[in-house]
Amino acid sequence: MDLNEHFEHEGATIACGRAGTGPNVVFCHGTPFSSRVWSRYADALTDSFTVHLWDMPGYGQSSMTPDHPVDFGAQARAFAALLQHWKLDRPHVVAHDFGGAVSLRAALFEQAVYSSLMLVDVVAIPPSGSPFFRFVADNPTTLDAIPPYIHEAVLRAYIQNASHRGLAEDDLQALLEPWTSDSGHPAFYRQITQYDERYLVDNEGRLGELALPVHVVWGREDGWIPLQTGQRLAALIPGAEFTDVPDAGHLIQYDNPVVLANLIRSWLSRTRP
User: Fold this and answer.
1) What crossing angle do the helices spanning 198-206 and 98-109 adopt, rounded to 10°?
2) Which residues form the AB hydrolase-1 domain (predicted)?
3) Which pLDDT tens digit goes with each residue over 235-244?
4) How many whole angstroms separate alpha carbon 252 and alpha carbon 31?
């Protein structure tokens, strides 16, 4: 599925795309990823749904200009604006990692309205962040000037670590690619240094206000965000379902794709109008 559309928001260019027919489904990616983590799932759903993909500002094919903010607040505003641009009425939303906090904040603070929300190994409540993520956040000028070959080696190890089973080389390369360009290298470290956990504290304080079907899905072997965090998140959301997936880490999309694909299709079929 190609991101063949562009939407301008607060000076940033958002790459996005849509395909298929039926109820609207929007996928949100996380960090340090892009919509590529959802592309195969989007393709598979186009027989029954109109599927929307987007790269957040500062990620993937979207603009990576240094003066554009990429924090949770900016991304939530961008998401809410993109939903209005697409003229979507109560879409289903499926979010991973950072996309969880973004989609939650858009609903809780930006008046975005969804038919349902599936949260897959999401950054949503404190504490959060892998050990490497926290290291970069604590040392903001340490790594953005390292030679490209070292930067790529660091990225390769970091992203591979998100998978429990290990990523195939072509999948790993696709996730690395946006961050190895001249603009992507500093953008990778910039999005970490702008990370602010106060947004997660704000989200957590209002989770009880959510009044929609929510399904929290978690890789049982997630080494970035423990299973217990997912269980606690589900307990904070009224009526939320919780499913843990065996043999899957943080990148559940690659570790156990059949189970995740079945969970997504079943959830969307149960919650569609």
Assistant:
1) 60
2) 23-257
3) 999 999 999 9
4) 14
> Which positions ≥6 away from 31 have C-beta within 8 Å?
59, 97, 98, 123, 191, 192
Q: What distance in Å separates the CA atoms of residue 268 and residue 118, rounded to the nearest whole number?
A: 9
The pair of three-digit structure tokens given for residue 194, joined into one six-digit string: 């702008």
The answer, as to whether pTM is greater than 0.85, is yes
State the pLDDT at residue 145.
78
Judge whether 224 and 130 are in contact, CB under 8 Å: yes
* DSSP code string of 52-96: EEEPPTTSTTS---TTS--SHHHHHHHHHHHHHHTT-SS-EEEEE
How is residue 168 written in tokens? Answer: 């195939």
CB neighbourhood size of 181 (10 A): 11
The helix (run of H) or strand (run of E) holding residue 38 is none
Q: In sequence order, what are the beta bridge partners of 75?
A: none
d(CA 154, CA 117): 33
In terms of Cα–Cα distance, which of 248, 249, 245 is closest to 262?
245
The structure tokens listed for 90 are 């109560």
Per-residue confidence (pLDDT) for residue 144, from 0 to 100: 73
Q: Which residue shows structure tokens 């993520």?
A: 133
Q: What domains can be seen in the chain, in order of their start residue?
A: 5-271 (3.40.50.1820)
